[in-house]
Please model this.
Amino acid sequence: MKNLCWALPLLVSLQAIAEASYDYRVLIAGEDIGYLKVEEDGDVLNVDFDFKQNGRGPTVTEKITLDPRGFPIDWTISGTTTFGSAIDEYFKADDGVARWRDATGPGSKAYTEAPGFYINQNGSSYSNALLAQALLAKPEGRLKVYPGGEASIQRSATETLSGEGVEVDIVAYQILGLDATPRLVFLDSNGTYFGTASPRFALVRAGFEAVEGQMRALSERLSTDRYVAIQAEVAHEYDGPVRIKDVRIFDPNSLQLTPLQDVVVYGNRIASVQPADSPQTPGEVIIDGEGGTLVPGMYEMHGHIGQENALLNIAAGVTSVRDMGNENDVLEDLMIRINTGLIAGPRITRSCFIEGESEFASATGETVATLEAALAMVRWCGSRDFHQIKLYNSMRPEWAAALTAEAHRLGLRVAGHVPAFSTADAMIDAGFDEITHANQLMLGWVLEPGEDTRTLFRFTAMKRFRNLPLDDPAITRTVDRMVAQGIVHDPTTAIHEHGLTAIDGEPAPMGRAIIDHLPTNEQRSLKQELFGTESAEERAEYVAAFEFVMAILSELHDRGVLLVPGTDLGGSFFYHRELELFEQLGMTPAEVLKRASWDMAHYLAQDEDLGSIAKGKYADFFLVPGDPTTALGEIRKIRMVVSDGVVYFPEEIYPKFGIRPFSSAPPVAMAPSPGGP
Model:
């Protein structure tokens, strides 16, 4: 990445980005949901950022003083995060010292003649434009950053965007080294910030909203290019048989490990399972399991899968994902790329996300304004490869019975949130097969008539759980219904633990085992509250609420209600934490592994091909060095994953995301030729 200065016409000074006032619009799936405003006053920038979607979103105010190089030297950030936690962040550089405070606490370092650039934790994306300018001014395109690490930049594309009477030339840059995935920045031909995008999200200069779809398409293309290149480096596809020798196999039916065996894979299927030391055949690739354990591939049952987390799920042993709601065409394109081997990713089982229209509606799925439109959407789903429909917060409760009846007629299951102003009991009576999220199941026990769960109130109201006795008649009534009718529950336990128990400045429970392996900014995110509190007493109320949640889930498990493991957090490492929390509900490690593999394959009617390691099944499994049936945490030390017959070594994958690997790859060799040594 040498001589990147040529990438912009540097007739523009470093502070050109602040020579005017700019307005930007925030859009999700083409819907305008907020703004970013930047006002310049000399060397001071005043930034306002606000958007709301699905009843939540950030509100941020920034004041940034720049030095002549365009580096922030005095920066204050205030407001609230997406989930309502207060922001009180600052950075100040003077007298040779850089000082800052973010949600993780205070810090300081020397501010030298070659200072670093402060990376904010909770500011707007406009800071990425300032960082891009600073990086482009460096011959090598690199800068040390505060709190730590190094950022670099690469030019990724030049495009002309046009539509509805507007046209603009942009240059796309990717900023690397800060997070697990690059930060995308679009600058116009004058070097001025134009916006950013992802496959569903766009921040675009006001007046150019007509090109936001092209921005999103470009972001998806650049992301695909990145993962295609990574796939070429980390995917090992062998022409002949692959023998994984000297491994114990976790058998989900017996909940035991087998004696040492060999597993032979040919193509994408398991060709045979043989006793250890069986004769090898010419042309085999030999992977030495060194006495480790093979575990069937696991199912993340509450995913919103995207290209950025697809490979990380594979590295974590998650070879199948039930997607619980996505923009249908974006997900379908992703599935094509995965299924054709262009990029790596789990097998995906799709849910059809249907949402009612309201000011709080989620833009993730299809929104409907009438019962007739909702029924038409169910029929559309029934004519495609969806496993179930998922109904959401703004759906009219009185439509639920008709929608579930139509879904069942078409062979679709029904899951979802409890629509606002209704209860889990009512949705069970309406025909739901599965209730999604612990809070959605339990809020009906504490809400007053008319209270609206389409906002952050669906999280903050959980504080009321602390006052509810476990033998309350309302609880007993719901649990009895679930047991009698075979209702399944998708509690997403880890995200509730994070929201209710995380404390600013301390590693969150789900991050404690992994945090030291992650990039600096990922570490910071795991040391920040999700739901903000104003006092230690309020945090104690949230902690008590999580204890209540775990007690109810334990009772559901004890009474035979099927709990399915999913995160709503992207899976990967957080899925491992979800499984640890299932162990806390009273399952043994072996029972947890069975729940994550065989039970979920059976639940999704995929157990003929998946869920266990046996001849003829798809080659979806992973290798750990120890015994996960006695120490579940072994699943973090995955040495190898086989997904659809393709071999991956996390040791090769994680550095692509700035992650320090947790284990080494097993030895790989070719079987000796006949008559050879």
In short: Residues 1-18 have pLDDT under 50 and may be disordered.
